[in-house]
Design brief:
- Belongs to the GntP permease family.
- Keywords: Cell membrane, Membrane, Transmembrane, Transmembrane helix, Transport.
- The chain crosses the membrane at residues 6-37, 58-76, 96-129, 136-154, 174-197, 225-245, 251-277, 298-316, 336-365, 412-433.
- It is a multi-pass membrane protein.
- The chain has 437 residues and is an all-alpha fold.
- 78% of the residues lie in helices and 0% in strands.
- It has 20 helices and no strands.
- Helix 2 runs parallel beside helix 14 (284-317) and helix 16 (335-350) runs parallel beside helix 18 (375-385).
């Protein structure tokens, strides 16, 4: 019965979000209240669990998410993203134009939230398509595959960051493993898959083509790369140093502190403000305005994550998560495959990768302690599942359709298939990596 109640709760969440068009945060609260009543929890305990869940989930995440949005805004608005793209295209040449766009999407996608990255990078794709006379879809899929992978796999994006916390994983190791899995996923879903997309030669919507920033107004390549990649560098370097430095040394504690996501993102934002703003003569009013806009960009995401935390806490406080863990263990399915499968099903039903990943976390988290599976790989498997087969209930699907001026059928053949390749490759990579680490 508890398992049926949870399944019914997830179905109700799908109905409220997709059919009733109720705000996702409100849907989470409604479902949490009803699920608590169905599980015979005391009324006071239900509201207390909801408040505790929201507080616990957002307590350590909100600063990282907000700082990540601020850095992404600086990278985009300063012209750094455009500089990185232009530099890579010059470096690799016209023959490897797809690879240039793919690398640009990966580098820029790490600090940029997905929707922001999509809107800012698509005009660049159209500009390159006009210059090279190549189809926009053929050029765009590799870059958007990179953005999708960074969104689903890698911290400091909201869902992977939240999963790191809920699975008690290590953010630095998750990032390193995630990059290892991201490389084959992006290559297969990008340059390899797009080889079959040259026949999609329709003209993109002209209203979406934005004016490019003049090259003499863009920051230099090195400051642009350093500002965008500093979070990755700090997380990766501190994770590697902790492997070599004995835990009883004072240096180890300093390295641990520098590798804390809050410190990493704070340093990255301060560095970005200086390199991409102050150093280039940007006024303090302009910089503070960008910071304010960045917070507005992620307000909805923060609420969704808080709502998912309420549902997760109820699963924990009602003891139903323990029951589900025992039940799932009896299925004799690999925990990574199970996490991917549940996330994939919720993703296909709801459409939101963030909601799919965070809802799955509350269900499968107890399996980590009982199965001994690597929590870093659980983050990646869940994240990969949350990207599975984007279709008509996903905002990204419609953004791609409208920007690239495709039919629904052609969008499924291009965008949806790309998302599926990314998801399945992530699962296979997680399973293979689990044999080594």
């Amino acid at each position: 019965m508890p398992l049926l109640i949870v399944i019914a709760a997830i179905i109700l969440l799908v109905v409220l979000v997709t059919w009733c068009k109720i705000n996702t945060f409100l849907s989470f609260l409604i479902v949490s209240l009803l699920m608590g009543l169905a599980l015979h929890m005391k009324i006071g305990d239900i509201t207390q669990s909801i408040q505790t869940g929201i507080g616990k989930t957002l307590g350590s995440l909100i600063v990282v998410i907000v700082f990540g949005s601020m850095l992404g805004k600086l990278v985009a608005e300063s012209g750094a993203a455009q500089r990185i793209a232009g530099g890579l295209m010059k470096l690799l040449g016209a023959r490897y134009i797809q690879w240039s766009l793919m690398l640009t999407g990966f580098i820029v996608g790490i600090p940029l939230f997905y929707n922001i990255g999509f809107v800012l990078m698509v005009p660049l794709i159209f500009t390159v398509a006009a210059q090279t006379k190549l189809p926009a879809v053929y050029l765009g899929i590799p870059m958007l595959a990179s953005l999708s992978v960074t969104h689903g796999y890698l911290p400091p994006h909201p869902s992977p960051t939240a999963l790191v916390q809920q699975f008690h994983a290590n953010m630095g190791l998750t990032l390193l493993y995630g990059i290892l899995l991201a490389i084959p996923a992006i290559i297969l879903a990008g340059p390899v898959f797009s080889r079959y997309l040259k026949r999609y030669t329709g003209e993109p919507g002209k209203m979406f083509v934005a004016a490019a920033m003049p090259e003499d107004q863009q920051p230099g390549m090195m400051p642009s790369l350093f500002a965008a990649m500093l979070p990755v560098l700090l997380l990766a370097v501190t994770a590697l140093l902790k492997v070599w430095i004995p835990a009883d040394q004072a240096l180890y504690h300093w390295v641990t502190w520098l590798g804390d996501p809050l410190i990493v993102m704070l340093l990255a934002v301060l560095n970005g403000m200086y390199l991409l703003g102050i150093r280039r003569g940007m006024t303090s009013k302009k910089i503070l305005g960008l910071m304010d806009d960045a917070v507005k960009d992620v307000a909805v995401i923060i609420l969704i994550i808080g709502g998912s935390g309420a549902l997760t806490q109820l699963l924990h406080d009602s003891k139903v998560s323990e029951y589900i863990a025992v039940t799932l263990q009896n299925m004799h399915m690999h925990p990574l495959l199970l996490a991917w499968g549940i996330a994939a099903i919720i993703r296909v039903c709801i459409g939101s990768a963030t909601v799919a990943g965070l809802t799955t976390a509350g269900i499968v988290a107890p399996l980590i302690a009982t199965s001994g599976v690597n929590p870093n790989l659980m983050v990646l498997a869940t994240g990969a599942g949350s990207l599975m087969f984007s279709h008509v209930n996903d905002a990204g699907f419609w953004m791609f359709k409208e920007y690239f001026n495709l039919s629904v059928k052609d969008t499924i053949k291009t965008w949806s298939v790309m998302e599926t390749i990314v998801s399945v490759t992530g699962l296979i990579g997680s399973l293979l990596l689990s044999m080594i680490v």
